[in-house]
């Protein structure tokens, strides 16, 4: 999960990712940042995030993102 936090902090360093649980709904992450985040996650964690999984519920918190990544890694 530390690598995920590093990726997020590189994209938007001014956000408290450990405590915020509405990253998308609270407008901390915009669509362009999410696209960059998806690309970084796919490269670093060697997964492919299907379009149907790019929904606010999967991107609203670090925990939700981490759960998505681990699910995708198990599926491959």
List the helices and strands and how they pair.
Layout: H1 2-11, H2 31-45, H3 56-59, H4 62-75
Question: What's the quick description here?
Answer:
This protein has 76 residues and is mainly α. The protein has 4 helices and no strands. The two termini are 19 Å apart.
Describe, in plain words, how this protein is organized in 3D:
- By secondary structure, the chain is mainly α.
- It is globular, with a radius of gyration of 11 Å.
- Helix 1 runs antiparallel to helix 2.
- It has helices spanning 2-11, 31-45, 56-59, 62-75.
- Helix content is 57%, strand content 0%.
- The longest helix is centred in the middle third of the chain and has 15 residues, at 31-45.
User: Level of helix content?
Assistant: 55-70%
Shape: globular
Rg, rounded, reads 11 Å
Uncertain regions: pLDDT < 50 for 5+ in a row?
none
Judged by helices, strands and strand pairing, the structural class is mainly alpha
Report how far the terminal alpha carbons are from each other.
19 Å
Largest sheet: none
Instruction: List the total number of helices.
Output: 4
> Taking all residues together, what is the mean pLDDT?
96
Order of helices and strands: HHHH
Would you report the number of β strands?
0
| Relative strand content | under 5%
């Amino acid at each position: 999960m530390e690598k995920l936090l590093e990726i997020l902090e590189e994209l938007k360093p001014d956000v408290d990712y450990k405590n915020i649980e509405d990253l998308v709904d609270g407008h901390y992450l915009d669509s362009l940042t999410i696209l960059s985040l998806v690309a970084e996650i796919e490269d670093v964690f060697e997964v492919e995030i299907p379009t149907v999984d790019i929904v606010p519920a999967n991107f609203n918190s670090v925990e939700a993102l981490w759960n998505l990544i681990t699910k995708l890694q198990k599926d491959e």
